[in-house]
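Our collaborator T.R. sent over the components below with a one-line note: 'Predict the complex.' Nothing else. No constraints on interfaces, no templates requested, no preferences about which chain binds where. So this is a plain run: every listed entity goes in together, and whatever single assembly comes back becomes the starting point for the next discussion.
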Amino acid sequence: MDSEAEFSSFFDWLTRRDRARELSVLMPLILGAAAAASAATPDTEDPDAGNPERRTPRERIVLIDPFSQRVAVIEGGSDLDSLLQGLGGKDGQPPASKASIDAMPSVEIGEADGGSECAICLEQFEVDGVAKEMPCNHRFHGGCIEQWLTLHGSCPVCRFTMPVEEEEVVKKSEERGGEGRRVDGEIRVRVFVHNRRRASEGPDQASDEDTMQS
Amino acid sequence: MVDFARVQKELQECSRDIERSGIKVIPKSEATLARLIGTIPGPVGTPYEGGTFQIDIALPDAYPFEPPKMQFTTKVWHPNISSQSGAICLDILKDQWSPALTLKTALLSVQALLSAPQPDDPQDAVVAQQYLKDYQTFVGTARYWTETFAKKSSLGIVEKVQKLVEMGFPEAQARSTLEAAGGDENLALEKLCSG
Ligand SMILES: [Zn+2]
Ligand SMILES: [Zn+2]
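Returned assembly:
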């Protein structure tokens, strides 16, 4: 396999995503999805060898967890879509944009609000304390709502949706455009452990799914 | 780390409201609040009426930012619940979770699911097929399962069959008639006598 090209294009993608914070949130998710797929897929030597009908080029995605230095390679077809949807589409609303989170006004909790509680931690607001107010007017503790919105950009109470990052939109439309090409039904996942000495990602280094469990 | 302060509040609120909602949530052991057992009464006017259903609850570390994992431990015949594993197909326990939901509201949603099956989005394909193609049989089987697995106080199905066998009916016939009668032993007896 052409792993060098694979890696350079992956690193392109990686460097384009400048927010490492978000990446660290995504990676365990990606690895989790990979673990699930790996468990469900019978381990075959080389699926292409036994199937001469297969002509479409295989989709292949390389994922890296920069912190634990684990690498996952996902190869496959139509099911990749559903696998990746787990990162934003099927897995609920994508995160709110940082700008929209920062733009939420802080409001003071007055006597009139006494007794009302933050729907996330279920603690009552302190009178004379501050809360963050979403565009739908629902109020939460700043820490509580920010933690939620960086996972899913919707109001916990009324599901009002916050703006998402530009690149999320781009990614979505790219996914949609690519759908037609993916006809292959098989998914194959390989996980590699990055060697500290050098980045060797040959199949010999492939290890089983145990490596993925964090 | 699970927000245990919140879980504690939820448990208190749930036990305050138990008379009205019928929903019970208790820790599985004293060791942790991350593993719980939920109990919901079968909704009135459904094949689950009269049954008490137990649901195993596991809270992920990120709770309440991630949904609780819920699974029936009481066997139940329903298109959106696996008849094998008890796994539940319900959007709010997956991608539609919100941290404003609680264990109680999630269990209320599961209870609502018992009232309103969604066979188009099945968890158990066999049950969903039966629900769509042969609704009467579905109701009979669901009721039979409720009688057999969700009613601890009443006689188990084995005992009921035994009772009918003792009255002189062949076991296979007693069992199938009982099944068709949704576990109602009196109705089964009537059928056996008239048939
Ligand atoms: Zn809060
Ligand atoms: Zn709202």
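Summary for T.R.: Chain B has two domains: 4-134, 156-194.
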